Amino acid sequence: MKPGIGIFALAFALLPSTALAEMIRASDGRGDALYLPYYTVEGGAASLLTVRNHADHPALAQVRFVESLNGQSVLSLNLALPAQGTWTAAVIESAEGGAELVSASSVCTVPILAGSAPGFARFRVFDYDVRYPDGGPGDVGRTRAGAVEVLGFAAPLGPFADEVDELECRSIQERYLGERASVISALQPLHGPPSAALSASMQIVEVSAGTVLSYEGTAIRGFFNRVSVVLPDDPLPRFSTPLAETPGGELLLATPSARYAVSEARGPDAVSALFMATGLEGDVANDPSIGAATDWLIAFPTRHAYVAALPGSLFDGGGPVAPFSEAFTPEGACQKLKLSRRRADGQPLFDPQSDPPPPPQRTEAAVCPQVGLLPFVAIDGLDETAARVRFAGDALPGLPLRRADDGQQVILPGLPVIGLRLSRFVNGNLGGGVLANYSFAEPLKPLVQAP
């Protein structure tokens, strides 16, 4: 045991709660709830995940991988991050054709990853095929792409903190063994409030193309407003289920336009409000003459809570719940999109009032998975265009909320969405086996409309 660690942990336990009063999207990428909208093993890709603890004391977090079609869990584990610690892992293709997690990190996980150098865990079909069947495919192929939720739910105290900092993984594992109620009772006194000091990032390595797509996770602060004990295989919490200061109490959240109050029972609304947009806009590089290709990744991080009967869901088996207008089907919950693109000089590619779209230009599309790719077609002679998608179809109901300052009921237009531009430039071989290939990922700009 390091000298003084136990004393520090005891002093930390006596401090008043540091939980934030309001939920906000963190501008510095650090928080107690993080969302990474894309992992994939398609085309031989490997997705490299990094989770960092920026605090000077250890942290406990749950990492949950969710599949792309309906956001169902395919693997969850707890991280015990030392002070200023970093955990790394990779999602790769499994021998069965699905995905699996591998890690050589010395940071402790619960359960401990099987095997050695590195340890691994295969993604599972159990939730969507057995526990919460939704009518979608039940095979391992559904695990090949999805998103990651990282929830920093507590700081370990006392001897538990010492074990985390000293990387005593077997001792940490033993704390989670036994009957569920007894485990929670024993862990409760050893859990302090989270510090909202976690960050996460993803690198998607496409070996065959010689490219790497890197992006930072989106962070929320004020997600856990009371101390919580989370077991690794519990179906909750999710990125859509924040905790109020008292069970069943109110959640306060702040957006650039207003502050809102939401009951904990409608926790998905609180998170959704932080991501509401009527569409997305960004750039497209897609010219065959320079080997440029662009996809847009469109993710609806809370959609599962509105369109399917899952743990923590607001959906009761009837129609979809606002702000969504389509219930989940085996193909997904399709969201229609209106597309437009402009040339570098700002002029539209065609006049929609008088000209038909030039082939193969599209003006309409749909994204059916909770996490889906929107590919852009090449247009000869145009190496860069600006693009915009707006949510279309039947009139979207918007998200009903109550303003915290005056109690007025308002409707936030749009849908909760996160977008990434994924661009690749494949310029062939320079000779000697050296590939001249490049890639990058950048956030798409949300189109926000005031209520």
TrEMBL record:
<feature type="signal peptide">
    <location>
        <begin position="1"/>
        <end position="21"/>
    </location>
</feature>
<keyword id="KW-0732">Signal</keyword>
<feature type="region of interest" description="Disordered">
    <location>
        <begin position="343"/>
        <end position="363"/>
    </location>
</feature>
<protein>
    <submittedName>
        <fullName>Uncharacterized protein</fullName>
    </submittedName>
</protein>
